[in-house]
Design brief:
It contains 8 helices and 10 strands. The protein has 265 residues and is an alpha/beta fold. Strands 6-7-8-3-9-10 form a 6-stranded mixed sheet. α4 packs across α5.
């Protein structure tokens, strides 16, 4: 599908975040975040519950605006953009939300076609072909006529992923893509994310709580703590940093403990 046309971007960052700050009421949720998401790679954001991971993602995909700081996407500074300019940048994104957010009353085919019907002028036959091709790409041949409720949780995630991919985005955003799946399905979704990222030559940014399993498919890891990116690098660099907070977080994960690091949302 998409592929060769993105390669000239290699070596650049798909997204660069600098000194990003955002507060909600009295809570300073982002407190000077700096992070790079390299083109053509999977950058995974991890950290304790409530450290600002999803809020950061929502600033990267233009759902929220910062109080200060900058977000640069493909070389464009977006924090002051409005209207059409913003829409042009938004077209680069595919989003996979935590709950999948499928429309229960629509078939799989109509769910996946939805962005094309709403946002493009493609003819019905072209939409049909694109939907078919995208469903096949995520391993869902032949389920177009079913409704989401007839599918397993893992298959629903695949439908949501197909919908995120159908407009051939350059950047894929994933917010905790394995939420609600039983442990046996988690690694299948991780594998699907990696295969999809490679097949479509995407830059991907993922918020995940599946630590350390998700590191197997991550090219870069950003560990957030107290509203900042406390640690960033390749998986090896982060794992070998001997950082007390990160090790504390990993240990808590292994024991099923989330909150002992004190404040920070």
């Amino acid at each position: 599908m998409a592929g060769a046309n993105h390669n000239h971007q290699r070596g650049r960052n798909a997204i660069e975040v600098r000194e990003l700050r955002r507060r909600f009421d009295r809570q300073q949720v982002l407190n000077g975040v700096n992070v790079d998401c390299p083109t053509g790679m999977i950058t995974t954001i991890v950290g304790p519950s409530g450290c600002g991971k999803t809020v950061l993602l929502k600033h990267m995909n233009l759902l929220l605006r910062p109080d200060s700081g900058s977000v640069v996407i493909d070389g464009d500074e977006i924090t002051r953009m409005r209207g059409r300019e913003l829409d042009r940048v938004r077209e680069k994104f595919g989003m996979l939300f935590q709950a999948g957010a499928l429309f229960d009353s629509m078939t799989v085919r109509d769910n996946v076609a939805f962005p094309l019907v709403e946002q493009t002028r493609l003819r019905p036959a072209a939409i049909e072909a694109k939907v078919k091709e995208t469903l096949a790409a995520v391993g869902l041949d032949g389920v177009g006529r079913k409704y989401p409720s007839e599918l397993s949780g893992g298959m629903q995630k695949r439908v949501a992923l197909a919908r995120a991919l159908v407009r051939e985005p350059k950047i894929l955003m994933l917010d905790e893509p394995t939420t609600g799946l039983d442990p046996t399905r988690i690694s299948a979704i991780h594998t699907l994310v990696r295969e999809t990222q490679q097949k479509f030559d995407l830059s991907a940014v993922m918020v995940s709580h599946d630590v350390p399993d998700v590191f197997e498919i991550s090219d870069r890891v950003a560990f957030m703590h107290d509203g900042k990116v406390h640690l960033y690098g390749t998986v090896d660099e982060v794992m070998n940093a001997h950082d007390e907070r990160f090790e504390h977080f990993l240990k808590g994960k292994a024991e099923g403990v989330e909150h002992e690091l004190g404040p920070g949302r």
